[in-house]
């Protein structure tokens, strides 16, 4: 599946490794916009709408399928190998890509998610959201009023509002049915061959107050990504890049610089 992308890069051709950016559940490419703009000053970047999100096509959700989407889209844009940065669901997709197509991943940066069961438990989404009845017309204020009784958390509600088609004939602009049907797979982690491993440079960044990377995850992280290191950003939650943008960007740029000449097998 060819994904919708936002492409940015420097004015002149760059010899630095390109970067792929993958958003989290119910997000879209532009959610990592400030990270992309920073990196695009010196290298080619592709921020992708994952399947069923943003302006990308819809279809059944699984991490292997989503990894294949990313690879197909990379190749479509002439990108054979890249540093891949993913947050939450995008982080699991990035990990899966590195494990099944390691030759395509120059280095791996995973934001606040581990390779295992877990993630998104705090979203508290009501069942049947794909069958929500929309009024004939909707603007931002009325969309907030529509979702408020269903989604009490302000941050989650605002995240969901960005996925609504406003104006006349409003509705979900995303593949809500496929996303909800795929939630067990998104919460989980596929069974992989014992030989699955990514030996390239790997950085995990976690938010101090987020529950999604725990010591119980470390053995699996070490098995799959033997050269990983973990950085914790104090005071940040799951949306690390929004909670502590300056420190987050420092870690990303430092990692990108350190791994420019990395090779993987």
TrEMBL record:
Its EC number is 3.1.-.-. It is an enzyme of class 3 (hydrolase). GO terms for molecular function: carboxylic ester hydrolase activity. Keywords: Hydrolase. Residues 17-245 form the AB hydrolase-1 domain. Pfam families: Abhydrolase_1. It comes from the Bacteria. PANTHER family: PROTEIN ABHD11 (PTHR46118). This is Esterase. It comes from Acetobacter pasteurianus subsp. pasteurianus. The gene is ybfF.
């Amino acid at each position: 599946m060819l994904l919708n992308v936002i492409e940015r890069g420097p004015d002149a051709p760059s010899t630095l490794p390109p970067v792929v950016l993958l958003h989290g559940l119910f997000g879209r490419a532009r959610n990592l916009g400030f990270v992309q703009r920073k990196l695009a000053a010196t290298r080619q970047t592709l921020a992708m709408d994952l399947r069923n999100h943003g302006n990308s096509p819809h279809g059944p959700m699984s991490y292997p399928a989503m990894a294949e989407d990313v690879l197909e889209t990379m190749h479509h844009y002439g990108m054979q190998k890249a540093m891949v940065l993913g947050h939450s669901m995008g982080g699991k997709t990035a990990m899966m890509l590195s494990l099944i197509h390691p030759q395509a991943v120059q280095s791996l940066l995973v934001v606040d998610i581990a390779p295992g069961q877990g993630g998104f438990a705090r979203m508290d989404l009501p069942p049947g959201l794909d069958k929500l009845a929309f009024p004939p017309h909707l603007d931002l204020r009325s969309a907030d009023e529509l979702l408020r009784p269903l989604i009490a958390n302000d941050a989650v509600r605002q995240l969901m509002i960005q996925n609504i088609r406003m104006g006349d004939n409003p509705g979900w602009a995303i593949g809500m049915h496929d996303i909800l049907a795929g939630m067990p797979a998104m919460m989980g982690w596929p069974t992989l061959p014992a030989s699955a491993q990514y030996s390239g440079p790997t950085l995990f960044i976690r938010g101090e107050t987020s529950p999604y990377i725990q010591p119980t995850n470390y053995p699996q992280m070490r098995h799959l990504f033997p050269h990983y290191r973990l950085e914790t950003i104090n005071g940040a939650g799951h949306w690390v890049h929004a909670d502590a943008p300056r420190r987050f960007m420092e870690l990303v740029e430092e990692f990108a610089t350190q791994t420019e000449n990395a090779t993987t097998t």
